[in-house]
Amino acid sequence: VQLQASGGGLVQAGDSLSLSCAASGRFFHTYAAGWFRQAPGKEREYVAGITWSGGTTYYADSVKGRVTISRDSAKNTVYLQMNSLKPEDTAVYYCAVIYNLRGKPKYWGQGTLVTVSS
């Protein structure tokens, strides 16, 4: 499975942004998927996950209520809709295939940079 994240950019605090993660590989739809982020000087943080069916999701407390993860199995794509962005959301965001909603990664995609200005 190969993953290609996109959608990052420079936004202002309070704005919204939608990230996409397009996957190649015939079995992607059978895997759980997640989004992680890494801010400068900080450890990588697991922020959201979704089961293969899309029926169950996980959100870190730091983003809960502002972020929605979803997937379109027909398009082999996972999305991360982020609203009410804060400067502390600035990070490189990575998508990944994960083993389960505890967030253990199986395959990584490359990152996309999100910068939120105050």
Instruction: List the helices and strands in order.
Output: EEEEEEEEEE
Low-confidence stretches: none
Query: Any idea what the radius of gyration is?
Result: 13 Å
Biggest sheet: strands side by side, in what order? 2-10-9-4-5-6
- Characterize the overall form: globular
Count of DSSP H/I helices: 0
**Major beta-sheet overview:** 6 strands, mixed
Assess the beta-strand content as a share of residues: over 45%
Please provide the count of β strands. Answer: 10
Q: What is the subunit arrangement here?
A: single chain
Q: Which structural class is indicated by helix and strand composition? A: mainly beta
How does this structure look, described?
The chain is mostly beta strands. It has no helices and ten strands. The chain has strands at residues 2-6, 9-12, 17-24, 32-38, 45-50, 57-59, 67-72, 77-82, 91-98, 105-117. The chain has a six-stranded mixed beta sheet, with no helix packed on it. The relative contact order is 0.32. The model has no long low-confidence stretch (mean pLDDT 96).
Summarize the structure.
The protein has 118 residues and is mainly beta. It has strands spanning 2-6, 9-12, 17-24, 32-38, 45-50, 57-59, 67-72, 77-82, 91-98, 105-117.
